[in-house]
From TrEMBL:
<dbReference type="GO" id="GO:0043531">
    <property type="term" value="F:ADP binding"/>
</dbReference>
<feature type="domain" description="Protein kinase">
    <location>
        <begin position="76"/>
        <end position="344"/>
    </location>
</feature>
<keyword id="KW-0256">Endoplasmic reticulum</keyword>
<dbReference type="Pfam" id="PF07714">
    <property type="entry name" value="PK_Tyr_Ser-Thr"/>
</dbReference>
<dbReference type="GO" id="GO:0005789">
    <property type="term" value="C:endoplasmic reticulum membrane"/>
</dbReference>
<protein>
    <recommendedName>
        <fullName>Protein O-mannose kinase</fullName>
        <ecNumber>2.7.1.183</ecNumber>
    </recommendedName>
</protein>
<dbReference type="GO" id="GO:0030247">
    <property type="term" value="F:polysaccharide binding"/>
</dbReference>
<dbReference type="InterPro" id="IPR039318">
    <property type="entry name" value="POMK"/>
</dbReference>
<feature type="transmembrane region" description="Helical">
    <location>
        <begin position="12"/>
        <end position="34"/>
    </location>
</feature>
<keyword id="KW-0547">Nucleotide-binding</keyword>
<dbReference type="GO" id="GO:0006493">
    <property type="term" value="P:protein O-linked glycosylation"/>
</dbReference>
<keyword id="KW-0735">Signal-anchor</keyword>
<keyword id="KW-0472">Membrane</keyword>
<keyword id="KW-1133">Transmembrane helix</keyword>
<dbReference type="InterPro" id="IPR001245">
    <property type="entry name" value="Ser-Thr/Tyr_kinase_cat_dom"/>
</dbReference>
<keyword id="KW-0812">Transmembrane</keyword>
<keyword id="KW-0808">Transferase</keyword>
Length: 344
């Protein structure tokens, strides 16, 4: 009896050490996993490895020059219509085994907007903007990378799908809000000067201008209405018609009351701060109602109140908003990791 219990004690000591070591290893691995999962705040992976004038989409392994009229006419096959706005009809199409999106001008009336959009797409190629595949201006056609999830309007339906359910988290949603604000930073500091995102008179319209990538990031897609704010100039106007509603910034509304008929000539211009006004509404949509989104709203309360200042000059820059979003993201990530660690 005594011998057998002594042998048990001898065996027990290394067994305890092995168990402790295994537990320690498991913890280390879990920490490494958590760090990599939550560190992932880099912009979308698409394109950008190609020089200007070249593209790479889908399963392509090397960069190819943007397609021109002859190639677009001969080699791009339209499959079905996937979207339609005021300016373009968009078709899922096929080019050399790759899925692409073909945008076709829907009315000569919008030719100028279309050409403006094409020139913006050409000059703004970056991680924040959809990849351009080719252009044929004389046919009123351009080709871009195809994103199967479509516009940001599909967010709720997408996150409700079984395969995305696990990703319906505050992390995914706050990162989308960060993508939106990061695009505004990019737009307001673009090489040719600040530009205003004009095609954004309501929430639906604004969201329809962005694509949702398969890795749940936002990409700017429709660049048809990005007027430039001339330094020291009169500002810009988003269209020639009267704007109404609470989604647009107060300076975009007719300032002379209902008794004075609207006149485009008398309507004062404004600048990129009209985009800042819209951030809280877009972010509210993107954050939705998941565990953690209330806490994020609370952390963003102050910066959002500043975005809604009546005087555009008192609103923060997109860059300032992004810094706050980033620090909230980091803080949330840290406390979330701590909670998981405490649970171990
Ligand atoms: N590359 C694309 N991949 C997938 N869907 C797209 C793509 N481009 C456009 N779409 C769809 O077509 C819609 C209209 O495109 P958009 O460029 O906004 O046209 P418009 O200038 O007429 O508003 C988008 O909201 C989106 O649903
Ligand atoms: Mg559009």
């Amino acid at each position: 009896m005594g011998r057998s219990s002594g042998r048990g004690a001898k065996c027990g000591v290394p067994a305890v050490f092995i168990c402790l070591a295994a537990l320690l290893c498991a913890n280390v691995l879990l920490y490494i996993y958590l760090e990599t999962v939550y560190q992932d705040s880099a912009p979308p992976s698409a394109h950008t490895n190609c020089h200007t004038g070249y593209f790479k989409v889908g399963t392509m392994s090397s960069c190819t020059p943007w397609l021109q009229c002859t190639e677009i006419r001969a080699d791009v096959r339209r499959l079905r219509m996937i979207g339609q706005g005021a300016v373009k009809k968009v078709y899922l199409s096929e080019w050399q085994g790759q899925k692409v999106a073909v945008s076709v001008l829907s009315s000569e009336h919008y030719k100028d907007d279309f050409l403006h959009g094409v020139s913006m797409l050409r000059s703004m190629q970056s991680v924040r903007v959809v990849t351009l595949v080719g252009v044929c201006e004389e046919d009123g056609v351009f080709v871009t990378e195809y994103h199967p999830l479509g516009s940001a309007l599909t967010l709720e339906a997408t996150l409700a799908q079984d395969r995305y359910l696990r990703l319906n988290s505050w992390q995914t949603r706050l990162r989308l809000a960060l993508d939106f604000v990061a695009f505004l930073v990019f737009l307001h500091n673009s090489p040719g000067g600040a530009r205003v995102m004009c095609d954004s008179n309501d929430l639906h319209k604004t969201l329809s201008q962005f694509l949702l990538t398969s890795d749940l990031r936002l990409l700017a897609n429709d660049l048809d209405a990005l007027p430039r704010v001339e330094p020291g100039g009169q500002g810009v106007k988003c269209g020639h018609n009267q704007l109404t509603g609470e989604f647009v910034a107060p300076e975009q509304l007719w300032p002379y009351g209902e008794d004075v008929p609207f006149s485009d000539d008398r309507m004062p211009g404004y600048d990129e701060k009209s985009d800042i006004w819209k951030i809280p509404d877009v972010t509210r949509f993107l954050l939705g109602h998941v565990s953690g989104s209330d806490v994020i709203h609370f952390h963003l309360f102050q910066i959002h109140a500043q975005c809604k200042k009546q005087d555009p000059r008192q609103r923060p820059s997109a860059h300032e908003v992004m810094s706050v979003y980033r620090s909230v993201y980091d803080r949330m990530k840290e406390s979330h990791t701590e909670i998981v660690r405490d649970m171990l």
